[in-house]
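Input chain follows. Return structure tokens only.
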Amino acid sequence: MDDNILVRFKHADILGGDAKVIYDFSIEVRPGDFVYLIGKVGSGKTSIIRTMIAENRLGGGEAEVCGYDLAAIRDRDIPYLRRKIGIVFQDFQLLMDRSVEDNLDFVLQATGWKDAAARQERIDQVLESVGMGSKAHKRPHQLSGGEQQRVAIARSLLNAPALIVADEPTGNLDNDTAEGIMQLLTRINREEGTAVLMVTHNTALCERWPGRLFLCENESCREITEARNGEDAE
């Protein structure tokens, strides 16, 4: 695969459980791309994400993500694939019994960072980059939903991924807070060249923050030109 392609699916079948939910899916994602997957609940958007991080096996066809062949990836290589991808979830998935910086330190230690001073420096860097530098000692329950999502984005940046995969990152947030999260993601995309692949059902976000658009419906997922072309994903 071209080294400049981070994600390539070619005529791929996507599984949800043991059943195929999307047939003949093709996509290429390069550094600096901002890509939306839109569609109704149950249309297969999250199944695509799970396939990309090797949580779901590939149902057929070809797929490579960050240099790993998903049709042939070994179980022991899956953690290394995931270290190359920053993952942001709708429900934050923070550890509630420890501070913000301890949440991030847990990830760094789990991904092989041995030096405590280097870990602290990296934690400080990513928290500052998402505007949360003053909240390092707070626990998640002391933060607003938007602040928790900023911490989750900081966590996704720890290992300087080339790709951020975000599954409905604004789904649990009010409109103003969602706006702030989108500003943050688009800034990271623009300034760092980090590709972003974002699942959303909110087509208004796609209009406000333009990017490439893939519509999941009727067991397919295909690129469309823009959110305003009459394809309603709500």
